[in-house]
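User: Show me an example of a complex going from sequences to structure tokens.

Assistant: Sure. Here are the input components:
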Amino acid sequence: MSAPTGSSVDNQTTTAATVPTGTLLQISGINKEYRSERGKVVHALHDVSLDVRQGEILAIIGASGCGKSTLLRIMAGLDSVTSGKTIWSRQPTPGRDIGYVFQESVLLPWRTVLRNAAIGPETLKIPRQQYEPRVRELLSLVGLTDFADALPRELSGGMRQRTSIVRALAHDPALLLMDEPFGALDQITREKLHDDLLRIWTATGKTIVFVTHSVDEAAYLADRVVVLSPHPGRVRAVHDVPLPRPRNAETKLDPRFAEFQALLRGEL
Amino acid sequence: MVAASQAQTAGTGRRRSRRLPIVLKPFVALLYVLVIVAVWAGYQTAADVPRFLLASPTEVGWQLVDLAGDGTLWTHLGYTVRNIGLGFAIGALVGVLLGVLVSRSQVVDAMIYPFLVVFQAMPKIALAPMFVLWFGLGLTSQLILIVSLSFFPILVGTVTGLRQVNSGYQDLATIIGMKPVAKLFRIDIPAASPSIFAAARVAAVDAMTGAVVAEWISSSQGLGYLLVEANSSYQVPTLMAAIVVIVAVGVALYQLVTFVETRALSWRDPVSA
């Protein structure tokens, strides 16, 4: 556990009319320091600024220890900043506007897939008959229709993470944040989930920000890629992905796909 | 086809070797009882133990039938079982409540911890005479002894369980906007329940010990009282019949908690359970 040295995120978060149109969230000049257990001050993020645009898929990529997860947690309100601002086009309501997919699925083992996925709307006290059709529809989007009544222990790792993605979307948030969501999965499952995610994105038009250490994941999924460099975490570059949509098996044969990955690798 | 059926046989074979078929379990238990009774009866006859030291199984059996027939057994049994139930319920409630407070508040933790260390080291039975002194020779002091014995394992189980709750659930609760009290009831306590149930099994047996000892000291009813009465009037068959009933109650209690536990925690992975 580390104690934040800065003030709470709340008084650093502002809603301002100054956000350019089409921007959902503007991060400006964020610094994050925390004290490690041995009392050493760790500078996790240094003067990080970036925009999250409405409806885009944004990848944050970097070597381990570059603060990419911290940056995502700050966007989600799970961590505070030491200085700097997060400016929203519209201030998010807790439990309503942000969906979050954790590195590990963090499912409740005593709840079925359906009830795990529905915990968000359930907490918002939305009537069951209102949210259930939506949750079931999302489950069918990721191929879990037949597992709605299964318990987490009966699922594979990929199915758990799919459930966790559906849970993050169940309350219909404007922004979906994903912290290395596919990191723990094998390559075949990863690629299936990539296509699941693109299908969901096409169907719902969410804004998606995800953290990854995988170059091909960033290139295949994202509209833009933010490259962070470590010690302390800084924005090294922001790239537009030069690949057309829809992305599919053909994308991977596109020479630009390989070129772009090489570019990213060079910066890591 | 052949391969498939072979695989199936191999599968069931593996299962059988790992776990006893459920239908056989009562027979194994019965076999145990028979062996114990046989050894008891054999020793009784072979060593020619005086009857005022050890009654024979048949004598104890008939004594049980007599006690059941004239209703004495049911009165005492009913009284003891009610006290165990009541004391255990209060103890469990107090234990979970204190456990939640200890795990939630560092102040309560710091306040309660020294007391707990002393309390844990102390044989709780030693307090029984004090309880009689303070609360009289009645139900109150009996219940207090039962509660003081049974709350402790539950408290420890609750604290252990709550401290082991996946810290990722806190992030989840923040994201979905779940309030701390709702999180306690809907996430933390269910997540801690395996540890609480394990403690409840211990506490149930402790509650029984408490009930019997309390009746021993300060009651004119119950199985503990039956023990003392039989002992002081040298009625060895009655004494041993009472012991048999107490053992049966203990086993039944343990089974009951295990049964409820299996039902409530059916979501657990059987491998890790």
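The lines above are the inputs; the final block is the predicted structure for all two components together. The longest helix of chain B spans residues 180-218.
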